[in-house]
Specification:
96% of the residues lie in helices and 0% in strands. It is an all-alpha fold. The relative contact order is 0.03. The chain has one domain. The protein is rod-shaped. It comes from Acidaminococcus fermentans.
Length: 103
């Protein structure tokens, strides 16, 4: 083999190694991107899950607070109605007196 052939073979090997390295680098980048997308999808799914849980918790708390407010208003209204019933007889007598006396 001549020196020229040795150089040519060495250049061919170098070119082959460069192509192989480029291919491996491309594959590594592609694999890394796929893994990054996979991790991002997992993070998004977890964030959605946490957001749904937070919304459900807020809805439950809001319902409890609304129920408590309704109950508080019901008790207040019931107390006012009971107080009004105490005065009902007197109010009826007053009205009857005004109607009978003035008419």
């Amino acid at each position: 083999m001549s020196m020229l052939e040795d150089i040519k073979n060495a250049e061919q090997k170098a070119d082959d190694l460069k192509k192989q390295a480029t291919l491996e680098a491309r594959n590594t980048v592609r694999d890394a991107q796929a893994e990054a997308h996979k991790e991002a999808d997992a993070l998004i799914a977890e964030a959605r899950k946490q957001a749904a849980a937070a919304i459900a918790q807020a809805e439950t708390q809001a319902k409890q607070e609304a129920d408590a407010l309704v109950e508080e208003n019901r008790k207040r209204d019931e107390a006012q109605a009971a107080e009004a019933r105490k005065n009902l007889d007197g109010a009826v007598q007053y009205i009857m007196k005004k109607v009978v006396i003035e008419c």
